[in-house]
Amino acid sequence: MVCALKMKDLAIKLFEINAFKFGDFKMKVGINSPVYFDLRVIVSHPDVMDTLADMLQEFIYDKKLNTSGVHLCGVPYTALPLATLISIKANKPMLIRRKEAKKYGTKKLIEGKFNAGDMCLIIEDVVTSGSSILETVDDLRSEGLIVTDAVVVVDREQGGAQNTEERGVRMHSLFTLSYLLQTLLEAKLIEESTVKAVAKYIEACQIRSDGSFIKNGTTVVNDLCRTRMSFEARTDLAKCPLAKELLKVMATKKTMLCLAADLTNSEEILNLADAVGPYICLLKTHCDIISDFSEQFVRSLQSLARQHNFLLMEDRKFADIGNTVAQQYGGGLYRIADWADLVTVHALPGQGVLKGLKSAIGVDKTVASRGVFLLAEMSTEGALTDEKYSTATMKMATEMDTDFV
Where in the sequence is the active site (predicted)? Predict the structure, then answer.
């Protein structure tokens, strides 16, 4: 049985080494919190890490989770050293989950020796919504491992336990945020006003499994949770009319497939579009590589798009000043603005490229009938689209011309 006195001593020690602090902090889920846990600091305090590992091992035994044949897996990255220590102390095999598969060697996502059907116990440091646990669960289960339980150091009590339970994973927490606050209050390390403020925050801000959260009785949807929502729900939130249209197609046809029709012959493209039309939401073209491009080809392609209910995207990657892209988009041999629902655009020229494209949309069309995809990243080796560029592109996409992007 985990000793209550040791629990309180460890809680105070974690506070003393600044493993949790009070203030105003932006969380992964996109909301601000008056308390923040940073258990990464324990790697600089071997005595604290050793004590915590011993206590977690006892806790696992108390919960009867220490059954034979169970692998341990720490959620990357903070929980990895803890899982390693517990593995050594308990003589239990450990698995390592990579955040991304390596591009060389075995290209494994899960490292370690295991068989499909083996049990795996997850170790995590701090849980808010439980999303990191669930990401690890998905990767482990994809390899055939069975995951039913997770042991965490601190539960912030904001919905994580419920969210993991919904996915078949029981969460067992050594500490809760309420317990830590009460312990620090009794030790006269924090004021009662702090305890009340944090308690009020927890009550007012519960996070759901889809990443949305309830704040003061109102459901708030942030960018993180949009991708976890149904296409129908996202349709109502989309600001760009073409985004709404695309999401409707995806919901109706139950497909996220975009086919890159990188062919050079118009007849081959039309035959391909007719064959795959029922299964795709987008057909992507490179019109300037088509050797026999014509108006008849465009009309036939539009007819197939209507027949099979998919949108057309010309992968033009516009990247010039406004006046030039306006002519490239609306004029020339291809007159892309007349037939392509969507086009791809580099953010490099700034907002001027979007203004130029908008100006080229003919009087028989509206901005609402056209849209652009801004390229924030490229997969080519040596691409100069670094993190700073990607962040600036995302800002451009979400704060400017939201009716068009």
Answer: 315 (for ompdecase activity), 317 (for ompdecase activity), 320 (for ompdecase activity)
